[in-house]
């Protein structure tokens, strides 16, 4: 089989590395800490390399011989504006040097808050992010796309909505800030309107999409949305999770802007989330029909997502 280099070993990088290894590929994962580092356990059959992905020469050496270079790393949220450009430039340089297809994992921040009535987001929307995190993510893909169009690299971006599922912890809106309370039957406090429809992208489906487009030449040169089940509100999702956990109905409360502002004084993550709070104040949904019309990956049925997520968290929270 083929050699794939995965940059980053957070939830998405780990899931992608695991899937590629299960498919029989040779897989190496690049992280700053190398083997045994990070919050996600190492995957059997996957080699780990310790290097700075922002070092173009080092990353290019690691990528030589790879058919695909999966960009799944991300700096800490408060450092995106400062560190993202160098990371993208390094990924592009490594792709050009090695000839590997650059598969970038993206998100929906770059679209920004859309004017007018809320409608599902499609890949053809022009970037309209007002904040630095959204702008830097949009600029990263534009850089890679320009190099692709110039014939210097082959690149594709796969965009996901908020991650959901096994392996998603501190960064997930239905993860560490929700699941422990669900198992205890305690109220859950959430950002924005708990009844606004919201798209949740299942983490294993992200990995399957990244693996699929890496070898589909007709996917290259543009962005695609990961297949995602129809949108559901935070309240509805918490209800499903609580039912699966057997803890009965769990109250869902909106975190007031005043409390959010106060919490942001002590939590860098909550402070950074102010930029994207609009995603939770109104319907925020994604249209993945373009991907589904072109390729084979489909979103995992919602009840399977919920069952797997609850099982993973039950094991994690056991004494």
What are the SSEs and their pairings?
Layout: E1 3-7, H1 11-22, E2 26-31, E3 47-50, H2 56-63, E4 68-71, H3 80-98, E5 101-106, H4 132-149, E6 155-159, E7 162-164, H5 179-184, E8 188-190, E9 200-202, H6 203-214, E10 223-225, H7 234-245, E11 252-254, H8 257-264, H9 268-272, H10 278-281, H11 289-294, H12 302-317
Helix pairs in contact: 1-6, 2-3, 3-4, 7-12
Overall average pLDDT: 92
What would the principal axes of the Cα set say about the shape?
A: globular
How far do the termini sit from each other? 41 Å
Order of helices and strands: EHEEHEHEHEEHEEHEHEHHHHH
Largest sheet: 7 strands, parallel
Question: What portion of the residues fall into strands of 2 or more residues?
Answer: 5-15%
Unreliable stretches (pLDDT < 50, length at least 5) are none
- Biggest sheet: strand arrangement: 3-2-1-4-5-6-10
Instruction: Please give the share of residues in helix.
Output: 25-40%
Count of helix runs = 12
Rg computed from alpha carbons, rounded to a whole number of angstroms: 19 Å
Care to count the β-strands? 11
């Amino acid at each position: 089989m083929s050699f794939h280099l995965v940059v980053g070993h957070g939830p998405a990088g780990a899931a992608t590395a695991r899937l590629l290894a299960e498919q029989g590929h040779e897989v190496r994962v690049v992280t700053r800490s190398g083997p045994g580092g990070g919050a996600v356990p190492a995957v059997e059959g996957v080699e780990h390399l310790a290097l700075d992905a922002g070092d173009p020469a080092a990353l290019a050496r690691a990528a030589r011989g790879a058919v695909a270079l999966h960009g799944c790393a991300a700096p800490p949220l408060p450092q995106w504006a400062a560190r993202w450009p160098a990371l993208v430039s390094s990924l592009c340089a490594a792709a050009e040097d090695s000839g590997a297809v650059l598969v970038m994992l993206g998100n929906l921040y770059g679209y920004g808050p859309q004017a007018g009535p809320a409608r599902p987001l499609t890949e053809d929307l022009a970037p309209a992010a007002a904040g630095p995190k959204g702008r830097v993510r949009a600029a990263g893909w534009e850089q890679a796309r320009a190099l692709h169009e110039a014939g210097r690299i082959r690149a594709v971006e796969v965009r996901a909505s908020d991650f959901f599922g096994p392996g998603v912890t501190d960064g997930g809106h239905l993860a560490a800030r929700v699941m422990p309370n669900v198992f205890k039957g305690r109220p859950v406090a959430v950002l924005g309107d708990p009844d606004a429809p919201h798209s949740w992208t299942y983490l294993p489906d992200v990995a399957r999409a990244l693996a699929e487009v890496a070898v589909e030449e007709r996917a290259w040169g543009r962005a695609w949305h990961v297949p995602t089940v129809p949108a559901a509100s935070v309240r509805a999702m918490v209800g499903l999770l609580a039912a699966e956990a057997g803890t009965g109905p769990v109250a869902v409360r909106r975190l007031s802007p005043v409390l959010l502002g106060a919490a942001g004084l002590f939590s860098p993550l909550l402070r950074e989330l102010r930029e994207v709070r609009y995603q939770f104040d109104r319907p925020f949904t994604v249209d993945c029909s373009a991907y589904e019309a072109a390729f084979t990956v489909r979103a995992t049925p919602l009840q399977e997502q919920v069952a797997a997520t609850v099982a993973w968290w039950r094991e994690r929270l056991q004494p």
